[in-house]
Design brief:
mainly alpha; about 0% strand
């Protein structure tokens, strides 16, 4: 899950997150969906022990 977190973690956050361009937010969300799909088996294994757990989208 570190890979998913790293892909979504913003390295240089803007001063005001409300001014974040919509296209960047859309790209980050699409990347989140892609990573969740790629690691769906690992997520399912984690959810056996932590029902309802999902990777955080930041």
């Amino acid at each position: 899950m570190y890979i998913a977190y790293s892909a979504l973690n913003q390295h240089n956050p803007p001063q005001n997150s409300n001014n974040q361009p919509q296209t960047e937010l859309q790209q980050r969300y699409e990347a989140y969906q892609t990573v969740c799909d790629k690691y769906r088996h690992e997520i399912a294994a984690i959810q056996k022990y932590l029902p309802g757990w999902t990777p955080k989208f930041r």
